[in-house]
Amino acid sequence: MYEKGRAWIELSMKNLRHNVKLFQKLLPEGCALMPAVKANAYGHGAGLIGKELQRMGIQNYCVASAAEGAELRSAGIHGQILVLGYTHPEDFGLLREYDLTQTVVDCIYGKELEAYEKQLSVHVGIDTGMHRLGESYENVSDIRKLWECKNLRITGIYSHLCTSDGTTQTDKRYMRLQEMRFQNVLRVLRPENEKAYAVHLQGSYGILNQEDLAGKYDLARAGLALYGVLSAPSETLEQTYHLKPVLSLKARIACIKELKAGEGAGYGLAWHADSERKLAAVSIGYADGIPRMLSGKGHALVRGKKVPIVGRICMDQLLLDVTEAPEVCPGEEAVFIGRSGSGRIRAEEMAAEAGTITNEILSRLGARLVRVAV
Questions:
Q1: Long-range contacts (CB closer than 8 Å, 24 or more residues apart) made by 261-264
Q2: pLDDT tens digits, 181-197
Q3: Cα 198 from Cα 79, distance rounded (Å)
Q4: Is 0.90 topped by the overall pTM?
Q5: Measured between alpha carbons, how far is residue 235 from residues 205, 230, 263, 270 in Å?
Q6: Residue tagged active-site, from 38, 158, 205, 227
Q7: Catalytic site residue from 111, 267, 278, 306
Q8: What is the pLDDT of residues 232-251, one digit of tens each?
Q9: Active-site residue 150, yes or no?
Q10: How many helices (H) and strands (E) does the chain have?
């Protein structure tokens, strides 16, 4: 099957390598990158991304589920794979079969892992104020008891910052408060377990805005920004970094239609031509991850020109008004994220038009989109 026959994703491994090296330069000596390759590597393709990271010498990865970890192992990825989320006891066997490291999401869950009666590698999650996963920083005595569990091989401890992407003084104060709480837990645990486990706290924004972090950490969980994008076009960082987007999203134009003034198009004839217009039917739709919310307000690039999505986006197709690109022909490509000629649409722009964040746009890109390394 021709990889670029219908709709596909192109991955710039050169840009990925650039971003990895940029992050590695930002990290202090002794702190290793631990890329987040969850949600199919934010829609990029976990196998392809994982293999390229492995070629670059990356030895630590994190995923959301045991199934994602198993998929990485099946793709030939070695090293430590940390499961950040919950794994049901019925799936504890996957952790051992694929040599995965499980997060202890709280002390009660730690007892469930211990009751499995087979040794498992784990990282202990600490809730320092996000109030999501992790045992509360206040329950240090309970956290210490986890080291008494004979079946838990504790190789790491971590927390998650919830305001590191913010730039207000309130955001910064809360980030410092979270780190202080985390450091307080470490001070209690370290005397008995010095150097016995890795410590990590930072995600993408925690790394990029790291001057506010005082502690020294062994790992850093770079996520979305490793793929060259931020969550929204309005976001700012403490410094300017030359991140390069890894992903482009493209599809084929199937046919061209000439419409007269007043004619409608698409389901419900939701769009009507106000003059003679030329439409292109493109072979991509919401089943591929184009948000239906972009009906009538999204855009694509055709021959370098930015053209609007018109009518209702369908499951497998959508319509573009290509009147401003009159020479376009069936079989040519339309670019929804990426470059065409001098034109460019960033993933952040698509997300803003859809009223969401880049993370959601990318992670929901469909499985039937072929991922091609370029």
A1: none
A2: 999 999 999 766 555 89
A3: 14
A4: yes
A5: 11, 7, 41, 34
A6: 38
A7: 267
A8: 876 666 567 899 999 999 99
A9: no
A10: 11, 20
